[in-house]
Write a structure and sequence with these properties.
The chain is α/β, with parallel strands linked by helices. Helices cover about 45% and strands about 15% of the residues. It has 13 helices and 14 strands. Strands 5-4-3-10-11 form a five-stranded parallel sheet, with helices on both faces. Helix 6 packs across helix 7 and helix 9 crosses helix 10. The chain is globular. The two termini are about 30 Å apart. The protein binds 5'-O-(N-(L-cysteinyl)-sulfamoyl)adenosine (5CA) and zinc ion. The site of 5'-O-(N-(L-cysteinyl)-sulfamoyl)adenosine has 21 residues, from helix 1 and strand 10.
Length: about 400
């Protein structure tokens, strides 16, 4: 699948700091030490509805990770999937009497437009679940042949008890896992499973649903977690630096993915850090396609909201916080953008070298974007008050805000 065009990332003087980031598995902050090529996998959308502010906030967090790495003069190898076949997508297509492939293509195209407008860096490999199927089948066969998977009425399940590290990503107790599994696509109640938590790797073809040749597995379609594992192992290998997503993916998705990969390779860990963004709510409830309480990026764009203001609205909350989208959040961002643009419109101004370092330090410190914004606010306030004759300063501030925060002034 093709991704979207990259916006230029200006190079800044000096060198950025290494990222210290909260890792869900250890429950604490770790200093990442990627090689010259940092590797990141971010779970992509299930394209049955448009990109909402919750999605955008999560992708914003992982865009910042990459910008911090790029500023340390590393290359970034970024992979993202599109879950372009799964129950919620098929159900929506049936509800709306639409062909599921057309629905997926249309919403994926809109997502690309939204990501481009928000200046999110594109993945190097943007891979759909459907195109990954030929790579998924042999992995499921290997798990089955190794005794890590079993058949139940034609469906193939992964046996979580095969992975001694199972449970280490989310750190949840068994009861919570069971509840979340039922809520998030699992089937803990299905009779005949070895462990209620065991997730499906391959679903045998169902009447009226799409299916693919699964070799010795028979016709069917892949389970959700193995999709991301197959794509990540193919393009990044084991032990990549960051696996990212919203906090609702910690369990079961990232927990199961780690176990699949560890059982397949005998290696540990799957990812060196599991990084999760908080949930964005609207009217007191998590914004979600299934509930329909949504603010779409594309709707704001249609209303002529500057994408840079949308981006500033996302940046005004710490990525790990759960927060509420309101009109005021956007209004504050619009106002901030105007202040910043006015401040850099002068040809000269207050020296900005210290500001570059402050923004760098804020982001390296677990992506503290609100602290980075506050630093730029302080510079902009002093700059607007007059003073300073440093000719390069406004340009340097624009480049810093662009390179590290993805905001075009
Ligand atoms: N296709 C799978 C991942 S492989 C999936 O979860 N798709 S999704 O469309 O449901 O979500 C895409 C990303 O947005 C996920 O990382 C998810 O955690 C995140 N996300 C969904 N809703 C919210 C929200 N309200 N706030 C923050 N992030 C959210
Ligand atoms: Zn995923």
């Amino acid at each position: 699948m093709h991704a979207w065009p990259a916006s230029e990332v200006p190079a800044l003087p000096g060198k950025g700091r290494d990222l210290r980031i909260h890792d869900t598995a250890t429950g604490g902050r770790i200093t990442l030490d990627p090689g010259p090529v940092a590797r990141i996998y971010v779970c992509g959308i299930t394209p049955y509805d448009a990109t909402h502010m919750g999605h955008a906030a999560t992708y914003n967090a992982f865009d910042l990770v990459q910008r911090v790495w790029l500023d340390t003069k590393r290359q970034v190898h970024y992979v993202q999937n599109v879950t372009d076949v799964d129950d919620p997508l098929l159900e929506r297509a049936v509800r709306d009497g639409e062909d599921w492939t057309e629905l997926a293509e249309r919403e994926t195209a809109l997502f690309r437009e939204d990501m481009t407008a928000l200046r999110m860096l594109p993945p190097k490999h943007y891979i759909g679940a459907v195109e990954a199927i030929p790579g998924i089948v042999p992995l499921v066969e290997r798990l089955r042949d190794a005794g890590a998977a079993y058949e139940l009425d034609g469906d193939i399940y992964f046996s979580v008890d095969c992975d001694p590290h199972f449970g280490e990503v989310s750190g949840l107790d068994a009861e919570t896992m069971r509840l979340l599994s039922a809520e998030r696509g699992g089937d803990p109640e299905r009779p005949g499973k070895k462990n209620a938590l065991d997730p499906m790797l391959w679903m045998a073809a169902r009447e009226g649903e799409p299916s693919w040749d699964g070799g010795s597995l028979g016709r069917g379609r892949p389970g959700w977690h193995i999709e991301c594992v197959a794509i990540a192992l193919d393009h990044l290998g084991m032990g990549f630096d960051v696996q990212g997503g919203g906090s609702d993916l910690a369990f079961p998705h990232h927990e199961m993915g780690a176990s699949h990969a560890q059982a397949l390779t005998g290696e540990h860990p799957f990812a060196r850090a599991y990084v999760h963004a908080g949930m964005v709510a609207l009217n007191g409830e998590k914004m979600s396609k299934s509930k329909g309480n949504l603010v779409f990026v594309s709707a704001l764009r249609r209303d002529d909201v500057d994408p840079a203001a949308i981006r500033l609205a996302l940046l005004s909350h710490h990525y790990r916080a759960d927060w509420e989208w309101t009109d005021q959040v956007l209004a504050d961002a619009v106002e901030r953008l105007a202040r910043w643009r006015a401040a850099v419109s002068r040809p000269d101004g207050l020296p900005a070298d210290a500001l570059v370092e402050e923004v760098r330090e804020a982001l390296a410190d677990d992506l503290d974007a609100p602290a980075a914004l506050a630093a730029v606010d302080r510079w902009a306030a002093r700059q607007s008050a007059g003073g300073g004759s440093d000719e390069g300063a406004p340009g340097l501030v624009s480049r810093t805000v662009d390179a590290l925060l993805g905001v075009a002034l």
